[in-house]
Design brief:
heterodimer; A: 381 residues; mainly alpha; abc type-2 transporter like fold; 2 domains; 14 helices; 65% helix; 6% strand; B: 594 residues; alpha/beta; Alpha-Beta Plaits; Rossmann fold; six-stranded mixed beta sheet; 19 helices; 32% helix; globular
């Protein structure tokens, strides 16, 4: 008289549909899910699209000409004409140094008294540039811009005087992929990776931990639903949510911020899906370790979100990191995806970049989902 | 219904048991220690009846339930449910039985209907049969008007019934309910019992139900008494209480303080148990018949002694007492600040004045116009289900939560202006015995003594007092989190009493502890009250209300009735209930509430 003992083989699709529907109802009704899935991405997009810029623009510099002449005025005018600088004229060196100390200017450009005279000599005239090195990034940029401005001015002067400049080679810069050198074009695509990490790993780890905390998972486990169905229910729901986040980010990047998408959108979609699976795998792996929301949140932030932010090449170039840190970045899933998105957006379908990275994503996705599947049993211990 | 219960006891023994537990052992790692949750437990559950798994917190009830549901793997031994090994065949077992975990397993952000649909889908209930099944379940639970309400917005009693309905969408042959009645109000408790009785009678379902309420044992056909991971006893509850026949007595002492009498009787040779119950002291003797020498004692002169029916709790207390070699009978040395003199209660000064107290959370009125006075040396109870507003009232009284409106006065201080001054006079013991679990017992005591500003000699004295009085000395270096529950409760109380407060607030102080620890706790409370300490206590144990001098019954933030236990019970007297219990009185009040 034992009941039919294998009812769990049947009705699998009905159970899965029920689980997915449940997840969506919960997502819609839970303000914290909405906040992490849509508000936070929106905030990050606006912040990185508008607020954060790694470019130096209108850098305040002090200009000191010890003996003003037509030449010094001409050079000063060329600096004034550039949007890179805002020039503050100072009469004397001590005054300019004081401004540098007070931080009202970032650099001092000094033309000596004999500037005009030496300019006409064959070995040319030197200029002095003192740069505030506290912010190394801005200092380097400022110096670079100054060198460029000086070079341009000399070239232009030589051309107008119809004289051959005694520089053996003339360097002509041409910048590829991000020809306007806008850091926004480089940051916003990387945000896709950050936002999908938030939804895939952090949110998934949190909601799974919440099921443990509230005892609902215990009730689910004692139903005919299999662990695979319970996990699939979560993966499907948060995969859809993550894809939504990706589409929103890509849409805003292209239409609101005017970032060019040079590669194939479908290729981007495919790679993003791989990355999302890996992120979901990480989130679910975390939830097998931590059964309360606080711990799960901590692990997800330290283990997935911060590495995606700092070690993925999203902001900081991996090539310029110390060798040891570079080695660590190889286990950061986001790095493979960041390099794909940046390439697809700014360069196009460069298969030599996309393929190996996509392969790495696939491996990571299989690894993490495999670990979750192996670790999750219909048990409480 | 009683006829049916008695009848089903005579079911044929030939039917194979529906659940067999054989030499089951399970332990968990807790830090460096291992906790033995179940120790060589064996029993069988008969089909078609209600079997109660009864024991205090930490007895191993939940572990046993989870093992039976195949959610845990035993260290050794086997569980066979519905003829299948619950560990090896867990999927098949889970597909066939119904299980409601402690917090009902409901999704709070889904409506009642959505929860039902989810579980119906998961259980593979065919679409065409759902309509009838839902109608049946909604009729049974009375939840029809609330199907579109979010589960998170429901009261404890409604959640409990919805959880049960979800477990029953596909009628299981074996139903496991893990503490379904904890924390819900007596009305819901009674309704739940009516529902499960009908289920078992009508569908022949077998039910294993765990509970920490000993009075619920009497509602089961068969009982397994679990304590510290071991089976103490098992069998029909009537047979177990029959052992106590002729050992329970009621003592009416018109001329004496009942509390003093109870304290003398406790620990007297020949007495197992003595409790103040309304206007009498109820005692249980070690053997049948009232002992001669006890009757001859001076304090018994002039008292009326009548035999009363034994209760299931007597069985448990008797069993625990015989197991404990060195019974603890606390003799409380009053803390230093309390002076000896205490006027009769009616003339004692009012120390707590509450007038039209209101606390709102958003537009929800957790406490809605509560007024009462408490006199010095009184034990004053706040009785109500979870969510009735007891704890919120308490937090306002302790100055932990500002009142939305109303007047509050503690020991002559208006709490709005002098919360800190008033707080020096009060001791507070919170629901979860909130000590620092990762500090040792000694460190906890030391910290709380310092936090209350004790220094030098007094600090040292009070620490010694606490260790001696609560028998905590031997646990001094153990982490508070690793203590047995009864000792956690003692530690919490020691910390609350450290500074010699003259008003004591106790929030659910006996929740989940075993009956001996509960008795010991009330002994201390009585001693404190006799010494002039004013005690306010919240509880959802109806019988504990009997130990109070006066009490209020609360529901939905309002006071339904106030008075001494006898008056409150008398108000519920009716032809059907000539001798109403506190629970009857409570139910009547809640039902008649507007």
């Amino acid at each position: 008289m034992i009941l039919q003992t294998k009812p769990f083989r049947k009705n699998g699709s009905m159970r899965l549909r029920a689980l997915v529907r449940k997840e969506f109802l919960q997502i819609v009704r839970d303000p914290s899910s909405i906040a992490i899935a849509f508000l936070m991405p929106l905030f990050l997009l606006l912040l990185f699209g508008h607020g954060v810029s790694l470019d130096a623009d209108h850098v305040p510099i002090a200009f000191v000409a010890e003996q003003p002449s037509a030449d010094t005025r001409d050079f000063e005018a060329s600096l004034l004409g550039s949007h890179y600088f805002s020039v503050v004229h100072h009469g004397s060196m001590p005054e300019a140094e004081q401004a540098l100390r007070e931080g009202t200017v970032n650099a001092v450009v000094r033309l000596r008294a004999n500037f005009g005279e030496r300019l006409r000599r064959p070995d040319g005239a030197p200029i002095q540039a003192i740069v505030n090195g506290v912010d190394a990034n801005t200092a380097r940029l400022t110096l670079g811009y100054l060198e460029g401005a000086w070079g341009n001015w000399l070239t232009r002067r030589a051309a107008s005087n119809d004289k051959q400049l005694n520089t053996p080679v003339i360097m002509e810069q041409r910048i590829w992929f991000n020809s306007e050198l806008k850091s926004r074009n480089f940051l916003v695509p990387g945000l896709v990776a950050i936002i999908m990490t938030l939804i895939g790993a952090l949110l998934t780890a949190l909601v799974m931990a919440r099921e443990w905390e509230r005892g609902t998972l215990e009730a689910l486990l004692v139903t005919p639903a299999t662990m695979t169905e319970i996990l699939l229910g979560k993966i499907i729901a948060y995969f859809v949510l993550g894809t939504g986040g990706m589409l929103m980010t890509v849409g805003l990047a292209v239409w609101l911020f005017g970032v060019p998408l040079r590669g194939s959108f479908w290729l981007l979609w495919a790679c993003a899906s791989l990355f999302l699976l890996a992120a979901l795998g990480m989130g679910l792996t975390i939830s097998t370790l931590a059964r309360n929301q606080f711990v799960a949140g901590q692990i997800a932030i330290v283990g997935t979100f911060l590495p995606a932010f700092l070690l993925s090449g999203f902001i900081f170039d991996i090539e310029s990191m110390p060798a040891a840190v570079q080695a660590i970045t190889h286990v950061v899933v986001a790095r493979y995806f960041v390099s794909i998105v940046q390439t697809l957006f700014l360069a196009g379908d460069v298969w030599a970049v996309v393929l190996p990275n996509a392969l790495a994503l696939l491996l990571m996705a299989v690894l993490f989902l495999g670990v979750t599947w192996r670790k999750s049993r219909k048990r409480l211990e | 219904m009683p006829g049916r219960l008695a009848g089903s006891l005579n079911m044929p023994d030939s039917e194979p048991p529906i659940l067999v537990v054989d030499r089951l052992t399970k332990s968990f790692a807790a830090g460096k220690q291992r906790i033995q949750a179940l120790d060589d437990v064996s029993f069988a559950v008969a089909p078609g009846v209600i079997t109660g798994l009864i024991g205090p917190d930490g007895a191993g009830k939940t572990t046993l339930m989870r093992l039976a549901a195949g959610l845990l793997v035993p260290d050794c031994g086997t569980v066979t449910a519905l003829g299948l090994d619950a560990t090896r065949n867990s999927l098949a077992v889970q597909a066939a039985l119904g299980y409601m975990p402690q917090r009902f397993g409901l999704y709070e952000d889904l409506t009642a209907q959505e929860n039902l649909d989810l579980y119906a889908d998961l259980q593979g209930v065919p679409k065409e049969s759902r309509k009838d099944r839902y109608a049946e379940l909604m009729h049974m639970t009375g939840l029809q008007p609330f199907v579109d309400r979010l589960a998170g917005r429901m009261s404890g009693g409604m959640k409990q019934k919805l959880g049960l309905a979800c477990t029953l969408v596909r009628p299981p042959r074996l139903l496991l309910l893990d503490e379904p009645t904890v924390g819900v109000d007596p009305v819901s408790r009674r309704e739940l019992w009516a529902i499960v009785n009908r289920l078992v009678a009508e569908s022949g379902m077998s039910l294993l139900l765990s509970t920490a309420y000993l009075d619920e044992a009497e509602r089961c056909q068969d009982v397994i008494l679990l304590h510290e991971g071991k089976v103490l006893d098992r069998g029909p509850p009537a047979r177990m209480s029959a052992r106590m026949d002729g050992r329970a007595w009621s003592v009416l002492a018109p001329t004496r303080s009942l509390r003093a009498l109870q304290m003398t009787l406790t620990g007297t040779p020949g007495v197992v148990d003595a409790l103040v119950q309304g206007e009498q002291v109820r005692i249980v003797t070690t053997a049948s018949g009232f002992p001669e020498d006890l009757a001859c004692r001076p304090e018994m002169a002039g008292n009326t002694i009548t035999p009363v029916a034994p209760r299931f709790e007597d069985v448990f207390v008797d069993m625990l007492r015989s197991r404990t070699e060195n019974p603890q009978h606390p003799r409380l040395r009053p803390t230093a600040r309390i002076e000896g003199d205490h006027a009769p209660r009616d003339e004692a000064p009012v120390v707590i004045k509450v007038n039209e107290l209101v606390r709102k959370f958003g537009d929800f009125r957790a406490v809605d116009g509560v007024s009462f006075d408490v006199r010095r040396g009184e034990i004053f109870g706040l009785l109500g289900a979870n969510g009735a507003g007891k704890s919120t009232t308490f937090r306002m009284l302790c100055g932990l939560l500002p009142a939305s409106s109303g007047h509050l006065e503690i020991a002559g201080h208006d709490l709005r202006h002098a919360a800190a001054t008033a707080r020096e006079r009060i001791g507070y013991m919170s629901q979860k015995f909130s000590q620092y679990t990762n500090l040792s017992v000694g460190q906890n005591l030391d910290f709380f003594a310092s936090a209350y500003g004790l220094a030098g000699k007094r600090h040292r004295e009070q620490l010694e007092w606490a260790e001696e009085e609560f028998d905590l000395g031997r646990y001094r270096n153990q982490l508070a989190g690793d203590l047995p529950l009864g000792y956690k409760q003692r530690l919490a109380m020691a910390c609350a009493l450290m500074h010699g407060p003259d008003i004591l607030f106790l929030d659910e102080p006996t929740s989940g502890v075993d009956p001996l620890a509960r008795r010991e706790f009330w002994q201390r409370i009585n001693a404190l009250a006799l010494a002039g300490v004013t005690v306010l206590v919240t509880t959802h144990f109806m019988e504990e209300a009997e130990y109070c001098d006066r009490l209020v019954i609360m529901a939905a933030g309002r006071i339904l009735n106030m008075g001494d236990p006898a008056t409150i019970k008398a108000a519920a007297r009716s032809p059907e209930h000539p001798q109403p219990s506190m629970e009857d009185a409570f139910i009547k009040l809640v039902e008649n509430a507007p």
